[in-house]
Structures are given as structure tokens and as C-alpha cells.
From TrEMBL:
The protein's name: EAL domain-containing protein
The organism's taxonomic lineage, starting at the top: Bacteria, Pseudomonadati, Pseudomonadota, Gammaproteobacteria, Oceanospirillales
Signal peptide (UniProt feature, chain positions): none
Keyword Hydrolase listed: no
Species in which this protein is naturally found: Halomonas gemina
Domain EAL span(s) in chain numbering: 31-281
Keywords for the protein's UniProt record, in alphabetical order: Membrane, Transmembrane, Transmembrane helix
Portion of the parent chain present: 610 to 890 of 890
């Protein structure tokens, strides 16, 4: 069969798409299977949330980021880097994102009763497709109301790609949610392609310095300059700033010296089940 495919591909000529390329065929097949499995994953209850600590300069827990995990029956844990892009393409991210939001809100409610955890915030990643979906604001508010989670403990992480086009719609969506107490962080800040001018008009609360800059901070002057600028910028715009991907004491010390007081990274804890969080240090 492979020979036949090769024959057909050759006969199709150089400039024609080679639909019968066996390697490509296998790749498409694997992808189709992953997609079929992903369609079943919600109904089969295969998703779970891991939580990664966010800490202040004294390493006190101030919040967590909820990170989605897919426990596949045969493949084991599938990383979000593998299935989120797929879910974004086929819009499964909308129901999946709804599940994430609901689970994170339930966690907030579980924490609300205990003074040791009542102040924790949960950051939830929101894909552009999900954010742009008609009725997104209503869905978030309905989830908050249904679960009884305090809106001011919920932070939504969005990315710069949202603001390249349709800036007004994005601002309106954010405004309506912020009116109810929900806050917004701009994730992976510095890696997008948009101009900085949108920053002054968007109702943001926090910038998250992308981990690629933090990683190279001590070896690369350009990264250090970018991080210092982001910290200064957040100060002048009166936004909170948090560094992600902090892995070493030296990185944290540099960040503190340059005015950053919130951190997330392996140095403080990897994403894990909620029971693994060290609370009240
Ligand atoms: P992100 O939102 O930027 O999340 C940070 C990623 O960096 C996480 O990867 C986290 O495990 C990893 N990380 C944290 N600290 C360190 C560190 O010190 N060093 C290094 N090397 N990595 C660190 P993860 O969990 O694999 O998630 C990858 C991406 O998948 C996320 O990037 C986010 O864009 C997306 N994602 C995860 N959960 C969701 C979700 O519920 N909804 C949506 N739409 N996207 C999600
Ligand atoms: Mg994030
Ligand atoms: Mg990030
Ligand atoms: Mg990211």
C-alpha cells in the first residue's frame, strides 16, 4: 500500500500536494485519533487541574495558577502543549475551558471557609477562542453564581493575541467582568507582536513576565533589559507584575532587586494536585 501511495504521489508531479505521502498519512491518523479521544475526554471525566503556587518575596503563598491536565486512559498524562492547540483549532476549548473555570471556582469555594486559604486567588488561562465566544461574560458570571465563588478571587489570564484585532470588543468583555470583581492578567507578556499602546486602554490588573526572559535573565543582557523595562512599565501603569518560570535563587534575587515582588516557578513549587500545596508558611 505504501508503494502504491508513493507511485500515486510521484505521478501527481512535483508541484502537487502529495495527499498519499505515507508519513503524512500516519501523522494525520495519529492526530485524528487524538482529536477523537479529546472529544470523549470531558464525558469520560479525564481532565483534572494541577495548581502551581504564586508567592511573594517572603515566599508566602498568595495565589495559584490552575493548569489543565489530561489523564488519557492509554497515553497517561498528556501535556497541555499537545492538546490545547488542537482543542483551540476545533473549538473544543470552549466546553473544556468551561470545565476548567467551574473546577477552579469550586476550589475557591472550598478555600473560602478557612481563614488560612480564604485570601488565595486562582488564575485561570483563557484561550482567545473561548474569550471571543458569544456569551463568554454571561458564562463566567453564571459559573461564579452557581458555585458561589467570590469573583474577586478569580483572575483570568489572557494573551496579547487578543488585542491585535477587535480591541474594543476585548475591552468591553474585560470591563463587564471587572465590574463584577474579576481581575485580569496578561500572560506571556513580551512575546506577542502587538504594540504597547493597547496597555493604556485595557482594564488589566497584572502583567506576567514571560518565562523565556526570566530564564535568560542572568546570562543575557537583552533579556535583563526587557525584564527591567517590564517591571518599570508595570509600575508606571500601576499594574501588578509577576515573574513566571523562576527556577533559581539568583533569578529571584535579581527580580527582587529590580522591584518585582510576585513569583511563580519551579523554585517555589511545580504544578501539582491541590493537596500538594504548602499553605500558611
Ligand atoms: P502558561 O499559562 O504560560 O503556564 C505556565 C507554564 O510554564 C506551565 O506549563 C507550567 O507548568 C510551566 N512552568 C511553571 N514554572 C516553570 C519553571 O520554573 N520552569 C519551566 N521550564 N516551566 C515552568 P504547562 O502546565 O505545561 O502549560 C502550558 C501552557 O498550556 C500554559 O502556559 C497555557 O498557555 C496552556 N494551558 C494550561 N492550562 C490551560 C487551560 O486550562 N486553558 C487554556 N486555555 N490553556 C491552558
Ligand atoms: Mg498562564
Ligand atoms: Mg505564561
Ligand atoms: Mg504560555
Amino acid at each position: 500500500q505504501a508503494d502504491m501511495a508513493l507511485f500515486q504521489a510521484k505521478r501527481a508531479g512535483r508541484d502537487t500536494l502529495r495527499f498519499f505521502d505515507p508519513a503524512m498519512q500516519a501523522q494525520l491518523h495519529a492526530r485524528a485519533r487524538l482529536e477523537a479521544d479529546l472529544r470523549q475526554a470531558l464525558a469520560r471525566d479525564e481532565f483534572l487541574l494541577h495548581y502551581q503556587p504564586q508567592v511573594d518575596a517572603d515566599r508566602r503563598l498568595i495565589g495559584v495558577e490552575a493548569l489543565l491536565r489530561w489523564q488519557h486512559p492509554e497515553r497517561g498524562m498528556v501535556s497541555p502543549g499537545e492538546f490545547i492547540p488542537l482543542a483551540e483549532e476545533n473549538r473544543l476549548i470552549v466546553p473544556i475551558g468551561g470545565w476548567v473555570l467551574e473546577a477552579a471556582c469550586r476550589q475557591l469555594v472550598a478555600w473560602a471557609g478557612d481563614p488560612a486559604t480564604a485570601d488565595l486567588r486562582v488564575s485561570v488561562n483563557v484561550s482567545p477562542q473561548q474569550f471571543r465566544e458569544v456569551g463568554f461574560v454571561e458564562r463566567v458570571l453564571a459559573t461564579l453564581a452557581r458555585t458561589g465563588a467570590p469573583p474577586e478571587r478569580l483572575k483570568l489570564e489572557v494573551t496579547e493575541s487578543l488585542f491585535v484585532h477587535e480591541r474594543d470588543e476585548a475591552r468591553e468583555t474585560m470591563r463587564r467582568l471587572r465590574e463584577q470583581g474579576v481581575t485580569f492578567a496578561l500572560d506571556d507578556f513580551g512575546t506577542g507582536y502587538s504594540s504597547l499602546s493597547y496597555l493604556k486602554r485595557l482594564p488589566l490588573d497584572q502583567l506576567k513576565i514571560d518565562q523565556s526572559f526570566v530564564r535568560d535573565l542572568l546570562e543575557d543582557e537583552a533579556s535583563a533589559a526587557i525584564v527591567a523595562s517590564i517591571i518599570a512599565l508595570s509600575g508606571s501603569l500601576q499594574l501588578e507584575v509577576i515573574a513566571e518560570g523562576v527556577e533559581t535563587e539568583a533569578q529571584q534575587a535579581w527580580l527582587v532587586a529590580h522591584g518585582c515582588h510576585a513569583f511563580q516557578g519551579y523554585l517555589f513549587g511545580r504544578p501539582g494536585p491541590v493537596e500538594a500545596l504548602v499553605i500558611g508558611r
